[in-house]
Amino acid sequence: MIFLTGATGYVGRHLLERLRTRGTPVRCLVLPRDPAHASGPGVEEVRADLLDAPALVPLGSGVSTVVHAAALMLPNPADRIQAINVEGTRHLLAAARGWGVGRFVYLSAVSAVYAQKNCYGRSKAEAERLVIDSGLDYTILRPTMVYGPDGGLHFAQLVRLLRRVPLVTPILGSGSARLQPVWIGDVVDAIERVLDDSRAARRTYAVSGATVVLFDELCRRICAQLGLRRVQFRVPVGLLKAIAGVAARLPGSFLTPESLAGLLQDATLDHASFRAECGYAPLDIDAGLRRALGHR
User: CB of 1 within 8 A of CB of 62?
Assistant: First the structure.
């Protein structure tokens, strides 16, 4: 049986559907107050918080593998991100050791290897170290920007912005940040591959798309798929920092100094070793955008 955290999140929902399709029993950890449910044939839902370590202890009966996909991202407060992503991972690793699991698959992020890390990137890098030092038979996966129908979070925000702002596309800074978006189906495929391949034990893999694209070019390609005519204009970094400083005072704002630190950096990862060792073969960006935006 697989123990899955983050089962009601974007990646978790898609992974759960794949596991159900292949008939794998899954026990899904869901927050006590989460209105969403994880259900279906072969799916067992349990309610607990990763920060409540004692509550995790009795949940591992029959579990052979843990897939840890739960995480908090910006714009959540930095202390909450640290608590869930680091302390929550610490608690789950301790529980998994007590359960005697054979595999622990951790969903990290490209942010963990940014040159200039924000609070989210720091939390992911710290959690990775905990996983590596856990003594468990682990695999760490680092997805780049995940995209698909109605998600992931950052892609959905970008599409929403492009649709809502008339006539123009605001480009952050120079627009030359290099991105490598990865189709949600490829992320699920990556998890499935490492579950089935012993060569993935004690390895860290990049889970990136087939295409490296500049931020402004990604915006153009999304607009083309949506049939939107937009003129791009660049917002200088200095102005962005000033806006982010003000926006940070607004509850739930996505444009803050912390988020800006991630948006202006390259977010590419070389998945060559994953391809060579496990056969990972992601979609190119145009094929993925056709699927994500409904133009098949």
Answer: yes
Output the DSSP codes for 154-199: HHHHHHHHHHHS-SEEEEETTS--EE--EEHHHHHHHHHHHHH-GG
Does the structure show a pLDDT above 80 at 261? no
HSE, side-chain direction, 13 A CA sphere, residue 198: 0
Reading the block at residue 279, the tokens are 């056969």
Per-residue model confidence as pLDDT tens digits over 119-135: 999 999 999 999 999 99
The pLDDT tens digits of the residues spanning 221-255 come to: 999 999 998 898 888 777 777 766 776 666 666 66
- List of residues 6+ apart from 284 with CB closer than 8 A: 209, 210, 211
What is the rounded CA–CA span in Å between residue 146 and residue 14? 12
CB 81 within 8 A of CB 74: yes
Cβ atoms 188, 15 nearer than 8 A: yes
Q: How many CA atoms lie within 13 A of 285 on its CB side?
A: 20
pLDDT of residue 216 exceeding 50: yes
Contacts of 71 (CB under 8 A, 6+ apart): 6, 9, 84, 85, 107, 109, 124
CB atoms within 10 A of CB 40: 14
* Cα–Cα dist 141/273, whole Å: 12
Quick check: 195 and 145 in contact, CB under 8 A?
Answer: no
The Cα 281–Cα 275 span in angstroms is: 6
Q: Is the pLDDT of residue 295 over 60?
A: no
pTM listed for this prediction: 0.93
Q: How far apart are CA 80 and CA 76, in angstroms?
A: 7
Q: Give me the pLDDT at residue 296, please.
A: 41
